[in-house]
Design brief:
Length: 125
Amino acid sequence: MRQALCLALVVLMVTHLGPAAFGADNVTSQITGMPTGANIEVRLKNKQALRGTRGDVSDSGFTLVNPGAGDRQIAFDDVTSVKQVNKKSHTTRNVLIVVGIGVVIAVAVLAIHIKNCPLGCNTHY
């Protein structure tokens, strides 16, 4: 009975501590595996989320380059997760906005024309 209880406690400790120990190596390898200049989002242990591009990597951390906020040195130990973010293209959205504005202008011109000439401007009685 005593051995089973000890085994259960060891299993609980390993499952609880395992992800944290492996997560640190995982974050380090993820960051070092990303190319310099890649757009990333970093989540820190203090619940802060930072965005920027990956800069130089050292043994203990890396540089997060953000032109608006400035470069920041971040230690691997402070990072809980990192993901590469792709910038979204807004081309489709912009084209749809322009087409929508064109349709609204065409409908407005047509409505004004119909209001000024309800039966047609060139009709003779």
